[in-house]
Amino acid sequence: xxxxxRTDRPGSGDLLTARGIQKSFGTNHVLxxxxxxxxxxxxVALIGPSGSGKTTVLRSLxxxxxxxxxxxxxxxxxxxxxxxxxxxxGSWAGRRTAARLxxxxxxxxxxxxxxxxxxxxxxxxxxxxxxxxxxxxQVQRIPRETATDQAEELLARVGLADKRDAYPHELSGGQxxxxxxxxxxxxxxxxxxxxEPTSALDPELVxxxxxxxxxxxxxxxxxxxxxxxLQFARQVATEVLFLDGGVVVEQxxxxxxxxxxxxxxxxxxxxxxxxxxx
Length: 278
Description:
Elements lengths: L13 E12 L2 E12 L3 E5 L6 H8 L7 E6 L4 E3 H7 L3 H21 E4 L11 H11 L5 H14 L15 H13 L5 E5 L7 H16 L4 E4 L3 H7 L2 E6 L2 E6 L1 H6 L4 H11 L4
Parallel strand pairs: 3-8, 3-9, 6-7, 7-8
Antiparallel strand pairs: 1-2, 1-4, 4-5, 9-10
Helix pairs in contact: 2-3, 4-5, 4-6, 6-7
């Protein structure tokens, strides 16, 4: 069994439940009541046009964004009711309480998940190894020697053992993104979140990142992936959600959604992406 294997995790029920997630930025109502459930070991793909709210959903799941309303619950806790926080903010004392709860709840959500970003977000002045062990040693207080051993095993796992002492600028974009994935894995989270992890890569580098993600899915990791790589979603995801205008227009198994979508908006989107020259 590899270090990253998740097939031995107990339980097969919902790991994550999100209900009624709403978020506005000024007058821009980005999310209008999004529901999402992710079972342990599932790969859920979020697809849709730019500006549909996909990334905001993802960032709301681990507290990088604070929704205006809705509930996010992880199996075994925490359960964060953002609507209750907003209601508590009506007075000065309420605002202080709501702000404290928001900080605590965002931290609790982040403790259970890890994000792989579109643009790597590696520390440029630190080596690959230092980037990977930052979270385990500084946040989780894992001894440096233990964190280093785990990091070296993970780097070998993705074919980067020889890059442990390299700096990010010495790596290709695909290698940097693989380091980003290793950095997330090193935290041993229950939930992996991917925000368009291949969109900033040259086309010839996309495959090496998708291969790692496919292997993680096969090992039983629970993943929510915002992606424009529809072939990856078709082959790897267990559930696909199509978002448009801040709502989930349609969701279902990849075979059904890609072959015979029920909604006209879904059909138009897939036609534009899969047959751009028709």
